[in-house]
Amino acid sequence: MNKASIIVIGGGHAGIEAANAVLSKGHKVNMFVLDSSAIGRMSCNPSIGGLAKGHLVKEIDALGGIMGRAADNSCLQFKTLNKSKGRAVWGPRAQVDKIKYASASKSFLTKHRNFKVISEEVVDLIVKNNKVLGVITSNKNAFFSDAVIVTTGTFLNGLIHIGKDNYSAGRIGEKAAHNLTDSIINLGFETGRLKTGTPPRIEAKSVDWKKLEPSLGDDNPQPFSYKTKLPFKNLNIPSFIAYTNENVHSLLENNLYNSPMYSGKINGVGPRYCPSIEDKIVRFSDRSRHMLYLEPEWMDSNQIYINGFSTSMPKKIQLSALRSISGLESANLIRPGYAIEYDYFPTRQLKSTLETKSISNLFFAGQVNGTSGYEEAAAQGLLAGINSVLRIEESDPFIINRNEGYIGVLIDDLITSSINEPYRMFTSSAEYRLSLRSDNADFRLTEKGFKAGIVSKSQYNTFIIRKNSVKSIESAIIKKTISEESKSISAQKYLCRPSVGIQDLFNFIPSIKHKSGAALFTAETNIKYEGYVSRETIRANAMLQNERVKIPKNINFCQINGLSSEAVEKLNKVIPENLGQASRIDGVRPSDIMCLSIFIKQERFT
Amino acid sequence: MDKTSNNNYPIAAIATPLGIGALAIIRISGFSLESIYYSLTKRKNTLISHKASLCSIYSAINNSKIDSCIIIYYKGPKSFTGEDVIEINCHGGNLIPQMILETLSFMGIKNAAPGEFSLRAFLNNKIDLLQAESLSSLISAKNDLSHSIALKNLSGFFTQQISFLEHELKTLLTILENELNFNENEITFSSKNNILKSLSGVCKTLKKLDNSSAFGSIINSGYRILLLGRPNVGKSSLFNFLLGKNRAIISEVAGTTRDVIEANSEIKNIPVCFVDTAGYWESDDFLEILGIKKTVKEINSADLVLFLDDKDPINEFNNTDLKINPNKLIFVKTKEDTVLINNKSNNFIKISTLKGFGINDLTNQIFEMFKFKNNSGPVITSNRQKNLIKASLKITIQSIDMIKTDLEMDLVVSNIRDILFNLKSLIGKVYEKDVIDDIFNKFCVGK
After folding, report:
1. Which residues of A touch B415 (CB under 8 A)?
2. Structural domain tally of chain A?
3. Which domain holds residue B40?
4. Could you say which of A114, A498, B276, B422 would form a disulfide bridge with B392 (CB–CB 3.0 to 4.6 Å)?
5. Closest to A597 (Cβ–Cβ): which among B120, B430, B433?
6. Do B238 and B364 fall into the same domain?
């Protein structure tokens, strides 16, 4: 077919992955941004990954995405979080140099001849017969395309709050996009409003570092990407730990009336899991201190990010609160923390390809869908990117099931449940958590991505080598019997003991000794977790049964007898694509699913 | 299951057993049943829900009067099925109920498939899966005790206990999931002891339920009481005497030889099954190895052994090489036909099947042995329930050990998700079509 051309509106994490997926398939991308120097800019924390988010990064990488490589290239410190709680929930996290990160991400795109950046504000969509045909910019220019992917993040009607002041902006110092929201609303889309926040940045030279506790990363970390060359160069730049105290708490408490959240200025709902410091003080009033991490925003940066101190208090209060903290007595603000309210599009308006249900070839990805976090945005961008191409090619959509990856869980959660706070990825959202580990993301997704044409031949070959290596370790262990105190025991059983690691088998099975650390780790985990994973799979399969039962598009839920009125209302709102999705909608009960399944079965034969 | 392939039409069935009886009930369920009432009765009065009224019923086929009936109308959702329900109490016998059913058929009302009324009740959330199962065992109850247990389970008692466990585990899961979701600096962690305490509580309840499953199978098959002794000491006489006093079903055990005869009965409402070993004690091969093997097997599967002898049962027992736990052994001296018996002082019980002496002493002692084993809590009666409870218990015990040895929390949490999944399946909160079909297939028509 001829090269398709796809418009991506926005150059954040979602836009970048969307563009990359389209480019990998050999098609053209026109990326529209307000400011071309802001492509790949990290608007909040200077880190990639973390709990469950690390899984997403690994999956994005396994599917040929950019995020993992860009983070490895710009890494200042690498640390696996949750190390004491079991490897299925380990969260690999990189602190990165924000400047390097942005330029690395951008360079992965600009090396493609088919990639073009257009620095104009998109104000309208060209739609005919419920199909999007292109965009119109504020300069009254029209650009036509085969598909449009909207990845505008918090820029839609963004409103920044600092104390009692508020003004319109996308990010601090960048303008908001107003007209696009209106034009999307005019197409009949519903919008909602959410809130998020960011902590203040302070001057490095104003901090008394000696009073703070340094925190280093892991010694020999595995990088995110299998494309990153080993050994992985890691600067291991420390971040520093500071603590709030009673003085800080009482100062903030006395000024709650100044906080836009508490004075009722903000209408958007904020996340419960990433609370502002004033939220923490109100909600955890029994705690005498909260831990803060001081993280550099780039190498030798004079700008320090205070992780854990998100706030929208007036600048003056922020500063005096900070100065009450040991080590920050003479801290200078570079930029105050702020809260931002923005529009999002409730995701029940989307299909599982992230294409909108009402306008074909129009896709939404990232924070516009009500998610929070770089990783969540990037994952959606990738999915929207590949599916926009498949849509134009009229091929089968690229869907990741809930038992294949966190990306699948994320997207399925988005389209089936109505969110009331920004959606963050958690490992607890994955029913198949033990099989969806960060170490086996490539085993789950790379082959699938290769078949869909977004994973390169070279990445696929690397994976095949790794796969063979893991398999050979596993079969060597499975075949081996070892003797212990004159009794013989299978090496497999021996390895399943809590205190035994794969290195304890080196003497018995010398052939595995020289395999790569990553391969040994995956093989070891596969064997140790096997029993648990198989039980988990039984649960998984019970659910997948319903996944295969498609719900006819023209179904009228009101006609189905036995459905509760609540279920009818919810089903009409979401319009699930299959029975599995229907069963996950809040308020839809097993008996409703039974009625529904009977109805569908009957429809099929009449 | 074809009977559920269309669930919005009205259905009807004769809800009482077929055969001669004074009365029969025909039940109809569906939506907007008023019109059916009006055409059946040719009346024009307003139908009042939950009120019985005397009406004549006319055939829709030839307009002739069929019977005078009491009709009760239940407006949904306040009815058994949650739909509109009409119950017609007509005269019994084979003819009248059948004629009414034919008239209903003629009016386009389908005959209900087995379990279809209960299925609709389940679909409309009037009963849960456990209650449905109880309903099924209630109908097929063989004895008073199983009847009362099924009734108790039907009231939702079992469901309540499972829901309580579910709640307990969910709370625990929320705490543990949070620990996995967040970093040390984001939240404070709960103590290992609290987790263990809550899990041990769950374990205790599951154990109780698991134990009740043994009781549950006894309710269906009865405590096994083995009659043992030399030939001609009166085993069969006692067997027949005990059964003669009670309702009994005698059945031959499948096989080519008449090895043992079993009969179900009750002792003061406790279900028992008497097993007479006459067959092989009196055959020639008793002394051979095969006979002894069979005897030992019977002894092992018995809940109680009555060792009979007409001279000295204790001495006679010691002459055999049989080993029986004294707690499940009662010695019986038979053929005490001449004198009035005093059974207070002996370590065996004297009886006379000829005169009926001592039989009450014997049944009293049997009753004493079993009465404390009765269970006041919910009782597991089906294999499906038993397997789910057993699996849950096993995983709970494993999880407690894992926490004690500080094993990875992601594995512990996966275990707890498993337990929850099992318990949800138990009360039908997980949609499993096969299970639901199976349960509703066990019903008779009309329920």
Report:
1. 532
2. 4
3. 2-127
4. B422
5. B433
6. yes
Q: A329 and A369 share a domain?
A: no
CATH code where residue A296 lies: 2.40.30.260
pLDDT value at B436 more than 60: no
Residues A238 and A281 occupy one common structural domain: yes
Residue scoring higher pLDDT (A231 or A186): A186
Give the integer Cα–Cα distance in Å for A205 and A303.
Answer: 9
Asked if A455 and A446 count as a contact pair (C-beta separation under 8 A), the reply is yes
Token pair for residue A555?
């179904």
Contacts of B181 in chain A (CB under 8 A): 51-52, 273, 426-428
- 8 Å CB contact of A593 and B124: no
Helices B129-139 and B157-181, interaxial angle, to 10°? 160
d(CA B237, CA B249): 17
Among candidates A427, A535, A546 on the partner chain, residue whose Cβ is nearest the Cβ of B181: A427
The Cα-based distances of A97 to A53, A76, A197, A513 in angstroms read: 18, 6, 21, 35
Domain for residue A461, yes or no? no
Domain boundary among A338, A362, A391: A338
d(C-alpha B225, C-alpha B301), whole Å: 9
Nearest CB partner across the interface for B405, out of A308, A498, A597 = A498
Q: Give A-chain residues touching B413 at CB under 8 angstroms.
A: 433
User: For residues A194 and A342, what is the distance between their CA atoms, to the nearest angstrom?
Assistant: 6
* Domain shared by B197 and B287, yes or no: no
Tell me which residue range forms the domain holding A505. Answer: 482-546
Do A317 and A423 sit in the same domain of this protein? no
Has residue B144 been placed in a domain?
A: no
Distance from CA of A428 to the nearest CA of B (A): 6
Q: Is residue B366 located within the same domain as residue B235? A: yes
Query: How many structural domains does chain B have?
Result: 3
Which residue would you say has higher pLDDT here, B210 or A247? Answer: A247
Closest by Cβ to B431, choosing from A293, A428, A593: A593
CB pairs under 8 A between A and B: 105
Chain A CB contacts of B77 under 8 Å are none
Give chain B positions within 8 Å (CB) of A288: none
> Where does the pLDDT of residue B257 fall: very low under 50, low under 70, confident under 90, or very high at 90 and above?
very low
Whether B123 sits inside 8 A of A591 (CB atoms) is: yes
| Chain B residue with minimum CA distance to A286 | B188
The reply to whether A462 falls in a domain is no
Answer yes or no: is A83 within a domain: yes
DSSP characters for A91-125? EEEEEE-HHHHHHHHHHHHHTSTTEEEE---EEEE
If asked whether residues A598 and A586 sit together in one domain, one would say yes
Residue B199 has pLDDT above 50, yes or no: yes
Residues A334, A346, single domain; the answer is no
- Answer yes or no: do A542 and B428 touch at CB < 8 A: no
In a domain, A68, yes or no: yes
Number of H helices, E strands in chain B: 15, 13
Q: Write the residue in A428, A593, A594 that is nearest to B180 by C-beta.
A: A428
Q: What is the mean pLDDT of chain B?
A: 78
**Do residue B85 and residue B25 come from a single domain?**
yes
